[in-house]
Amino acid sequence: MCLPVLIAAFGLVVDYGGRLELEDQAQWTADQAARAAGQRIQEGTVQAGNLPTGLNVEAATAAARSVVAAAGMDGTVAVSDGRIEVRVTAQYDPKILPVPRDVTAYSSSRIAYGVGTDESG
Q1: For the purposes of burial, counting CB atoms within 10 Å of the CB of 91, is it exposed (0-12), middle (13-18) or buried (19 or more)?
Q2: Which of 37, 64, 74, 119 is 20 to 30 A away from residue 12, measured at CA?
Q3: How far apart are CA 96 and CA 19, in angstroms?
Q4: Are 66 and 86 in contact (CB under 8 A)?
Q5: What CA–CA distance (Å, rounded) separates 26 from 38?
Q6: What span, in angstroms and rounded, lies between the C-alpha atoms of 36 and 38?
Q7: What is the spatial distance between Cα 18 and Cα 34, in angstroms, rounded to a whole number?
Q8: What pLDDT shows up at residue 81?
C-alpha cells in the first residue's frame, strides 16, 4: 500500500521539478531572444552620430529566432514600432506521471534612448 504512494510522490518531484526547470529555460530563452532582437537598431543613424531611428526589423527578427532555435525550442517573434514581442514554446516529456506537457514563456523589449527615456526621446 505504501509503494504506490511513494511512486506517486517520487513522480511528482521528478516530473513537476523537470517541468519547472523547462519553464525556467523557456523564460530565459524568451528574455535572451528579446534582448538580442533589441540590439538590432538601425546602424546607419547611430554611426552618423544620431539617435537610432528604429529597429532593423529583419535583423531583429532573425536574431530572436536564432536564439530560440539554438535553445531547441519553438517560438514566434513580432517586431513593430520599436517593440519586440517573443513567445517561446516547449514541450516537457514526463518521466513518470502524466503532467501537463506544454510550456510557454513570453518576453518583450523596446528601444530606449537613455536612462529614464523611451522611444519618444
Answers
A1: exposed
A2: 74
A3: 12
A4: no
A5: 18
A6: 5
A7: 24
A8: 78
Q: Where are the domains of the chain?
A: 2-110
Are the CB atoms for 34 and 86 separated by under 8 Å?
A: yes
Q: Is the pTM of this model over 0.85?
A: no
At 69, list the grid cell: 532555435
Residue found by looking up cell 510557454 in the block:
104
By the 8 A CB rule, do 71 and 24 touch?
Answer: no
pLDDT < 50 positions in the chain: none
What pLDDT is recorded for position 29? Answer: 97
Q: What is the 3-state secondary structure (H, E, C) of the chain?
A: CHHHHHHHHHHHHHHHHHHHHHHHHHHHHHHHHHHHHHCCECHHHHHCCCCCCCECHHHHHHHHHHHHHHCCCEEEEEEECCEEEEEEEEECCCCCCCCCCEEEEEEEEECCCCCCCCCCC
